[in-house]
Amino acid sequence: MMELTRKGEYAIRGIVYLAGKPLDKVCLLSDIAAAVDVPPTFLAKIFQQFSKIGLVRSFRGTGGGFMLGRAPENITLLEVVEAVEGPIIPNRCVCAPQDCDRSSFCNVHPIWKQVQEQVCGVLTGVTLKDLSDGKIKPQPTDLAK
Amino acid sequence: MMELTRKGEYAIRGIVYLAGKPLDKVCLLSDIAAAVDVPPTFLAKIFQQFSKIGLVRSFRGTGGGFMLGRAPENITLLEVVEAVEGPIIPNRCVCAPQDCDRSSFCNVHPIWKQVQEQVCGVLTGVTLKDLSDGKIKPQPTDLAK
DNA sequence: CCTAAAAGGATACATAATGTCTTTTTAGGG
DNA sequence: CCCTAAAAAGACATTATGTATCCTTTTAGG
Q1: Residue-range domains of chain A with CATH
Q2: CB B85, CB B7: distance < 8 Å
Q3: Of A11, A69, B46, B103, which is most buried by a Cβ count within 10 Å?
């Protein structure tokens, strides 16, 4: 359960690679794909999605390629993951409570809500800069224990 | 991402129903399925799995049926979820770090580990008794904020 | 032995994941 | 103005997973 897909894994690899480059450097898709070991055609699809929502910027034609859409310290891992996997929804009822109007067993609802919040919390706390720097910030929840 | 399957949803419904019955009461599969609105044949498969690992006990033949395998306060939601969905693994690399020996992008590894711990933490904090009682205990993480 | 009930196995269908291929558009450079 | 490089877009193929259903077998009570 809760498993990131290949697509998600590839997306993170690719965009973290971009985050490690200068903001104005245009990178060839084929170079990125080779560097992070992802099928180029697949990565193309992912970056097309990212381009539409501004996570990356793309340039066509000769000398074209991709660069990060914004400064890496302003892009959270949550944003990347949700862009490629859709929203973090442990159970349908979290977003559609009307499906949950059964009596007893929908006591579970608040639990899924908690799970969702925890996960989003962790992923929000990490930026692409953190990841490309190799400096992962400890989460508050770690300090707690 | 992270979505519980129907099977998982059905499993929880079914076993929470059992948790609400007296420990020695044998319930007909068909009754359970009808009560929690789950396809009986599907629930049968789920409870067969549960029976093998002792989460529920089954009785065959006339007067047969299912009951909870242990006291509901000793069964956590995590146990139920993992029994039916498999282990909580946000990314393969969490359980197989050898796949993660790439340089930069596996900085993400500790993040997935954190996610895993957070989710398991929440699900461990809830028992079937809590769920069948309708009394969901607030998590430590809630108090923190 | 007859019937009720779960166990086990095989099967069917739909959807999502994981790619690939081809064609089209865009842009730079001679 | 063409030629070439590169991404965009769309169609397609393959597999795996999810979501069941059905049928036969085993077990147990009466």
Answers
A1: 6-137 (1.10.10.10)
A2: yes
A3: A11
